[in-house]
Amino acid sequence: MISPVPPRLPSELLLKIVLWLPDAASLFSVLEVLGTADQRGPFFESLWQLGSSFVDRDHLWPSLALTEMLSTPGCHTLVESVIDSYAHVQSICPSATIAWRASFPSSPSNALVHSIPIPLNEWFDLWVQLPLTELTITSFYDDTTPALPFIAATFLDSVLPQLRRLVRLQCEGDGVGLLSIFEMAAASTTLEEIDIRLAAAPPLTETQLVHATQWLSSLIVRRFYVPFLALEPTVPPTVRNAWDLSQLKSEMLPTTFAFRELHLSRVLTPSGLVSLAHAIRHSTRMDGLTVNEFAFLFGGAYAPAFGVLFDSVADSNVRELDVSRCRLADSHWPLLGPIFERSKNLRHVTLSNNGISNEGLVWIARAIGTNTSIERLDLDGNTDVTVGGVVHLLSNCDFNRRGSFLLNLGFTSYSVTEKIQLQTLAGELRVDLYL
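User: That's the sequence. What structure does it adopt?
Assistant: Structure tokens below.
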């Protein structure tokens, strides 16, 4: 006679019953009585397997304590299958990292701990204890990133300086104050990247500038993106000068940059440009450099400064150089062109909107012809370059000696016939031409 198969409790009902069990010993006694994987169901079968291995069962119930052991390949998949059903997850793993791109509560009704609503300030006091390494905050609503509710911004502002393990911070909109951001940055020993994209930022105060400058002076900084920020009129000159990158001095810079990319726009004087050049010459990590949109208050002093910069780039590991909108017109290229010829690590050069005409293009063509490492040249926005200048560039470079080459001229006023002529020539030379 075949014994009847005992009915299986629905997983939802079994979970509600087990939630009343006070400790791991009680839980695993029940799971043992159930006997089979089918009777335990997917969630409790995964717990049973975890508890039957080398994992401390007290780390599995009533809270899930994330430890180094639970991150091993044998346990990781099982942990992922059960973690969503826990009301409380605790991280006691020293190397655990968390990236927060989730929503923040907007009222006590959705500020839940163990399914119980608590005051917002208590929720944020608990949240700030998470071992966060990445934090994305936005006040814009879209389909991918939850927005920071207005009512939650004040609470987040107050606890942000307490984050001690953050590595990357990105802020969009006006949700978080700059004071809390820079205060947290100044005290951090781990924060490598700050990306701030504010719709409208108030003028920086003396305290904010001191904190920001302190963080920028540390050797951990890898990336800092911030729009133009006005300063309070009451900021002392000494504090203002320490922040003012246009007065960049070589003694303010490390011997070599640790970050891989640097973007500077409208901030450097000629002397600051020279100081920057000295710092990047021996950098082993930097492979992308953008310096553009200068306020030309110093006239011809920029010409030799760019010569020093290009000379340093030629001796560095920089692979991508963008000097758009720097007014590097024809008169600069008898100096800069020959430097390009020996820049053996350069792969992508952007010279957009510099006022270059055929005269300057002669020097650039000579550099491209000699330096076969360059794979892409962007010349868009240089509207004085004629069809004849482009033909000269294409005809005087031996493109058979390089694997590929892309020439981007962007929008041009060339006629249809002229564009066909250029595309035909480029095709014969195996050059990708964008018109």
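The radius of gyration is 30 Å.
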